[in-house]
Design brief:
Elements: H1 2-6, H2 8-31, H3 41-64, H4 69-83
Length: 86
Amino acid sequence: MIDANSGLATSAWLGKTQQGNDPIGRKAAVDRGNTIHTLSSAEAQEFIKVAQAIDDEWVADMTKRGFDGKKLLQTARDLIAKHART
């Protein structure tokens, strides 16, 4: 939605702004005594496996609406991989 209405530059700026403020929010949560849970690599992989059903449903819905759901999902994954922190 942001890309379609404001452009890729605005989307990138918003992402960087959010990412830059994440440590502030995390510190506030820790300072309040909240527990921060970090998934292990194995837990993360299991989550991805279980969540696959959501991707499948979304692709089916987009395809039903006349879009190429598989292509849209792959494009999103490619962009995430391209812009992810390593």
